[in-house]
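Interim report, section 4.2 (structural modelling).
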Amino acid sequence: MAKAKPIPDLSGERSYAEAAARIVSVRASELFDQAGGVLDTGDIERVHDMRVATRRLRAALEIFEPCFPADAFRAALREVKRLADALGERRDRDVAIATLRGFNDQMPAVDRRGIASLIEELRDEQERANRELAPLVEAQSLRSLRESLDELVATSRSVPA
Amino acid sequence: MKARPVKKLDPDRSLGENGARIVRARLDEMMSFAPRALEGKTKAQHDMRIAAKRLRYVLELTGFVFGRPADTARRRARDLQDILGEIHDCDVMLPRVRAHAKLLQQRDASAVRARAGNAPDLDPRLAARAPHRTAYRGLDVLAVYLEARRQLLEDRFVDFWRRQEQTGTWARLARAVDAHLERARQARRTAKAAERARRRAEAAERAARRAEAQAERARLEGERAAGASRSLHAPDTSP
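Predicted structure of the assembly:
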C-alpha cells in the first residue's frame, strides 16, 4: 500500500481553510498517480492502492467540508464516492477470492469443489465489477474528476476571489 | 453510518483548533458504540469500525498537532479497524457460503427430481449421485471455520479494547485534545481582553484629545474676550 504523501508546510497554526486547499490538492494528486493498471485482475494491488488513495481523498474532503462552497463540494464528493464505490466492489471480490483460494489450498482435495464453485461465482462478480469500474478510470473521466477537484481547491475559502 | 456533525468548525480559525473539535467528536462517536459492540452486537461492531476509521483518518491529517497521545491513538484506531474489519468480513462471507451451499442443494434437488422421471417414489441412490454432492462438505467446513474465526476475533476485540482502556489510549487522546481546545479558548480570551484594553486606551486618548481641544478653545475664547474688553475700556484718543 502506497504511503500517504507528506503535506508541505503544514502546521497547526495555519488556518483550517488554507490547510484544506493544500491537503485536498495533495490527496487528489495521489489518486491520479495510482490510476494505472487498475483493471488488471492479475495484479490486485493496483486497485487496492487506488482505492486507498480514494479513501484518503474522501476522508480529507469530509474533514474539510466547511472550507469549500457547498455546491462545488457536493459535486466533487459525489464523483469521488462513485469512484470509491466502484473500486470497493472490485476490491471486495479480489480479497474474497484470494482468501478463499488460500483457504481451499489447505483443504483435502476431496473438499475443494464447493469452495472452487464459490470462487467461480466471485470471479464472475469481479469481472462485472471491473466492467463497471472501467468507464470511471478512463482518461477522460479522470480528467473530468481532476478538473472538479482543481476547481474545488481553487474555490476554497483560503483562496482570494 | 452517517458521521455525527461537528459543531463550531470555523475555516478562519486554526487547523489545530478545528482538528481538535473533529477528533473529539470522532473519539466520542467511537466510544459510544463500545458498550454494545463489547456485548457482541453486530451492528454496533460495524458502526464502531466505521467510527474508528474516521478517527484514524482525522488523526492522520491533524494528529501531529496533539503529539504522542494522538500518534498512539492513530495506530490503535487502525488496529481496531483491522480487527473489526476482519469480523465484518466473516459476517459478510458466512451467509454467502451458506447461501451458496443451499443453491447447490436446490440445483441438486431439481436434477435428482428430473432423473426420477415418472417413478412413483424417489430412489435414494439417485440422491447419492447428485451432481454437487461432493461440494457441500467443503462449504460446510468453510462455514464452521468462519463462525469459529469470528468468535476468536471477537475475543481478540474485547481483549484489545480492555487493554486500551487500561493503558488509557483514548483518555490520553481526549486530554490532549481538550487541552488544545482550552489553550485556543484561553488565547482567544486573552486576545479579546487585549482588544478591549486597546479600544479603551484609544477611547481614553480620544477623550483626552477632546478635553485638550476644548480647553484650548476656552483659552482662545478667554483671550478674545479679554482683548475685546481691553479695546472697550481704552481712553478715546480721537480728535
